[in-house]
Design brief:
Length: 101
């Protein structure tokens, strides 16, 4: 073992970045339960800040969509559940599609 390489920095997953290579984690936005108005606007803004600021942690549209769905609860999660079938790809293709709902 080289004295200049710390074992924790080894990347055993090929081209995936190690945690040392990732951007500083932006706090998760609160879970969104549904409903129009200022709460929706705030939730969308915080979600967008998270996904743009941590783009390296959510590099694909699918990863962003899955994260966004994970920040929903109650009526909002129930409404979107049909677009996120278990063990398969979301039927929504982009975050713009997600935001339209």
């Amino acid at each position: 073992m080289s004295p200049h390489i710390h074992p924790r920095s080894w990347n055993t997953l090929g081209s995936n970045p190690t945690s040392r290579d990732l951007s500083e984690k932006i706090p998760d936005p609160e879970l969104y339960a549904g409903g129009p108005g200022p709460e929706l606007d705030t939730s969308i803004t915080k979600l967008d800040i998270k996904l743009q600021g941590n783009r390296d942690r959510y590099p694909t549209e699918e990863a962003q969509l899955r994260y966004a769905y994970g920040r929903l609860k109650d009526k909002a999660a129930a409404l979107m559940s049909g677009y996120f079938p278990r063990r398969s790809q979301p039927t929504l293709k982009t975050m713009d599609d997600f935001y339209k709902f």
